[in-house]
## 1
Amino acid sequence: MPAPANRAVLWAMIHAERRALADDLAELSAEQWAARSLCAEWTVEEVVAHLTAAASTGRLRWIRSMAGARFDPAVHNARLIARHRGADPAATLARFRAVLDSTTAASGHTPAWLGEIVVHAQDIRQPLGLPARPGLEACTEVARFFASRNFAVNSKDAVAGLRLEATDGPFTAGEGALLTGPTLALVMVMAGRTAYHAELTGPGLAELRERR
């Protein structure tokens, strides 16, 4: 598998994926903005506000927010979503567009912030039936990161004891029962999105389903 991309390349990918999502969002109806995303507790509009918050919150501000929420991530996220959500979907989209090229982040784990936009973009697109998908190179970088550690999600633990092999790119990881499918689907199941089980095959799929 190729060597990991450097930080500048990763940020370029993040910006490209944000722009692609913003283009998709521009075509949504009011009903689609209010629809549930794959983040079951959030609507599409709330996911977009969350992405805006992530691109607007540096390390110190993140620490202050978490401390103010008594280190409860749900409270922390809810407060940031409320702060970055607009008066209506058009305003929420305008706020997201304002941070498309931001390099602000709560930590220096740049692949994690690429994962943030890759996963949440599909949290929006998949339930709405939108056809766009993140680029393969971006998905490969996120898959590599998710398989190597637990960060914002318990991605490494989710696939422990399984052998992952992408059918559309170079990504491979782990040892054990084989689980194959598109790189994006592997990323999404590592992030806990069971809706993507349907895109996977191999003897590892039954074991994965038992875990979720």
## 2
Amino acid sequence: MQSSRVIPANEYRRLRWANQAGWTREIHADPGTGHWAWRISIAELDRASPFSPLPGVERELVLLRGEGLRLRFADDALVELHPPHGRLRFDGGRVLVGEPEGRCEVFNLMWRRDAAEAQLWHRPLTGAMVVFVEPGSTWIVHLLGGHARIGADAAFPALAAGDTALLRAQGQRARYVIDGGGEVLLARIDAAAR
């Protein structure tokens, strides 16, 4: 497992969707691009686009920017994500079309059900927040706005809006202090129970 690190927004990789219908900025795929266990990215939509169906994958979307996004599923279900930060968790195998109100960007957390379990929270950051990371787990800190620093030493660069940190434990439980002001998305990824 890789060590903890900060990934600046300007290092995200811009890639085509699997179905070539849109673009995403990949933040991280674990254990790597290809057959990942989990992946985080920022999808870009500027017109109605079919999402890539991903059987066996759970997805959670959070609206980051834009006036809204309608998710029109093949079974006639319709869900609207409204600003600020509307969100939805759903089965990635469902067929749907994303219909943005103008241009929008969406945080996209995906994980394979047979490989990982995930939880996602949207939280204010006012002062210090402590995260305890167990061995085998990864915590994701995506800074929506404001500023943040992890720990008091220089091991981690400061986070600006749009940056992401991956926090991991090396051998034993680790404690991380996230200090700053703004809003964050926090996600915890664990290996799936066998």
## 3
Amino acid sequence: MNTPVAASTSPRGVYLITPDEADTVRLLARVEPLLANGATWLQYRNKTASPALRQAQAAALQPLCATHGVPLIINDNVALARAVGAAGVHLGAEDGDIAAARALLGPDAIIGTSCYDSLDRAGTGAAAGASYVAFGAFFPTTTKVTRSRASVDLLRQTAALGVPRVAIGGLTPDNVGPIIAAGADLVAVVSGIFAAPDPVAALRACLARFQDPIA
């Protein structure tokens, strides 16, 4: 098993999230150029896959991420994260307790929590030991059904939490600038990169916004 990649204590950049891809070989071929071109973190997420396919895909992604020095984070599934030696797990509202995940994955694991549009949930998550808090959706998205709409003011209001803030939901190279300017440390992107005509160019465009958000 590959050793998990250590996460920066102050990560900044693109938090890439995999699309629902049934073909593992194709998934790896889509992901690898993005890992090689500056993706900060990778989250494995496949809501349409069977448990066996999720296991196989996560296990295949882990060494690829390790090769490129990119932490692999598993969506929703602490046991799968542990099984493949991932760097951490992302937990939604119904996906379990931060402390329990920390106990299973260890003190250095990246454990993120979805906070939607809730300042209170972000504060509770940070106090419980979350490695980062995620807000969204900021824009309409076809990736998943969303019931909350986060605002840039929420990013400004959470500056004192002391943990990285992740923005998600409909983000593209054309709209991430104000989100980054408001304080997002990481922008989580799925279709804005994977569905782009040139995914590597889209990734680089998002990364460029961290240098000049209002360009």
